[in-house]
């Protein structure tokens, strides 16, 4: 990809620039925990957006997207916002940097990527983080701290792309480190790195390619259930709740709310258990927790769908170590931790069975935990 970008940059702009990259992400465990003040546990992956950038001495940004095969030019004032969705991510990052007192001047750029779009690996966060990191390095002497870079990406989604996302994706893309997952405390925003180098296992995503429309309303309902239970317990969020506390108010909440809270309380503990297991290199426990998360998401939180449950069943049948829905649910990918010797059979079986039942194969996406935003040596 590097050479392809460099060739294109030279052809278009007649010079050379500096290369930057930032990654997509997975979340190993910790789902629907963010709005409950709990933990998420993401890592950056070996799928990324790369951009070559050079200051051009004008007040315009000139961008060529290799994957869209499209060119766009825009100024740096609010009224210069481009129409093209892909360019709005870059414009947004420029604007959010400027809003925070950062410097941005005109530049030329060519970029490309290999994070699958819309598969739940956060290609948009990779794009934002790549440019946020680059602008910080090129124009601001790296004075903007890394957490602020993540927030620049998040605000870009909020203010320029109409996506009301949390901070996890951009956090993971900016802070990602090879062979490490990061436990982010969504209440304090503190984070901690944990070793993740599962020798003898592969991490693979199966994209069901199912996209359910209208997921906003069930999502909001889940949040409301959690808020009701927290209020009944007299705590700020379910982060502060335990199974015992929940048992004490069992008859004061609906059965549905009870099950939603039971999942969230369990999920908080599972993230902590997985962290402990990783410090011992115990990937079997990690896998067991992943299956438990899937069951909780499917039965208690009810955010799975038939296709994802089916992929999970196939994983169990094939002796996969751990498998679960990744992301908010209602479609997208499962994430699977698979022993090397079971991998080929699992992939072949999943493709064949899923295709027989749903008329298409799941997309197979192998991932390795890798570095987040960085400058790429020319
Ligand atoms: P995801 O879950 O992958 O983040 P989004 O819908 O949030 O999905 O973001 C995808 C959007 O990000 C694309 O529609 C496009 O505008 C932009 N994008 C991502 N990757 C690229 C790329 N390689 N080239 C151009 N634009 C990209
Ligand atoms: Mg996105």
Tell me about the biggest sheet?
6 strands, mixed
The hetero molecules present are: adenosine-5'-diphosphate, magnesium ion
Q: Order of strands side by side in the largest beta sheet?
A: 5-4-6-3-1-13
The CATH topology of the largest domain comes to Ribosomal Protein S5, domain 2
The whole-angstrom Rg is 21 Å
Which percent bin holds the helix content?
40-55%
Total of helices: 11
Number of domains: 2
Spans where pLDDT lies below 50 across 5 or more residues: none
Give the overall silhouette.
globular
Task: Tell me the number of strands.
Answer: 13
Looking at the overall shape, the CATH architecture of the largest domain is 2-Layer Sandwich
Q: In the CATH hierarchy, what is the class of the largest domain?
A: Alpha Beta
- Summing up helix and strand content along with how strands pair, one would put the structural category as alpha+beta
Mean pLDDT: 96
SSE topology string? HEEEEEHEHHHEEEHHHHHEEHEE
Termini separation: 12 Å
Strand content: 15-25%
List its salient traits:
Ribosomal Protein S5, domain 2, alpha+beta, 11 helices, Alpha-Beta Plaits, 13 strands, single chain, six-stranded mixed sheet, 378 residues, 2 domains
């Amino acid at each position: 990809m590097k050479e392809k970008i460099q060739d294109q940059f030279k052809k278009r702009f007649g010079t050379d620039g500096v290369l930057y990259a930032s990654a997509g992400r997975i979340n190993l465990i910790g789902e629907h925990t963010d709005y409950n003040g709990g933990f998420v546990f993401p890592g950056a992956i070996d799928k990324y957006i790369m951009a070559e950038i050079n200051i051009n001495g004008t007040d315009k940004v000139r961008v060529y997207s290799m994957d869209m095969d499209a060119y766009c030019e825009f100024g740096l004032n609010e009224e210069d916002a481009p129409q093209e969705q892909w360019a709005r991510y870059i414009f947004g990052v420029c604007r959010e940097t400027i809003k925070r007192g950062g410097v941005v001047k005109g530049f030329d750029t060519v970029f490309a990527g290999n994070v699958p779009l819309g598969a739940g690996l956060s290609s948009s966060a990779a794009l934002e983080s790549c440019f946020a990191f680059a602008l910080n390095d090129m124009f601001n002497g790296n004075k903007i701290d890394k957490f602020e870079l993540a927030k620049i990406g998040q605000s870009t989604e909020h203010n320029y792309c109409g996506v009301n996302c949390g901070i996890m994706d951009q956090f993971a893309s900016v802070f990602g480190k090879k062979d490490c997952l990061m436990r982010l405390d969504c209440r304090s925003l503190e984070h901690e790195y944990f070793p993740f180098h599962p020798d003898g296992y592969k991490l693979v995503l199966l994209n069901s390619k199912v996209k359910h429309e209208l997921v906003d309303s069930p999502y909001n309902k889940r949040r409301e259930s959690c808020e009701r239970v927290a209020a009944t317990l007299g705590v700020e969020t379910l982060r502060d709740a335990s199974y015992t506390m929940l048992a004490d108010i069992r008859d004061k909440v609906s059965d549905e709310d009870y099950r939603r809270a039971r999942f969230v309380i369990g999920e908080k503990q599972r993230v902590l258990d997985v962290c402990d297991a990783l410090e011992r290199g115990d990937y079997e426990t990690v896998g067991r927790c992943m299956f438990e998360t899937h069951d909780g998401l499917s039965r208690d939180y009810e955010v799975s769908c038939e296709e994802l449950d089916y992929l999970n069943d196939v994983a169990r049948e094939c002796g996969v170590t751990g498998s679960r829905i990744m992301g908010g649910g209602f479609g997208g990918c499962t994430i699977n931790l698979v022993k090397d010797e079971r991998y080929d059979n699992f992939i072949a079986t999943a493709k064949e069975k899923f295709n027989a039942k749903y008329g298409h194969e799941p997309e197979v996406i192998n991932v390795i935990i890798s570095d987040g935003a960085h400058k790429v040596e020319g």
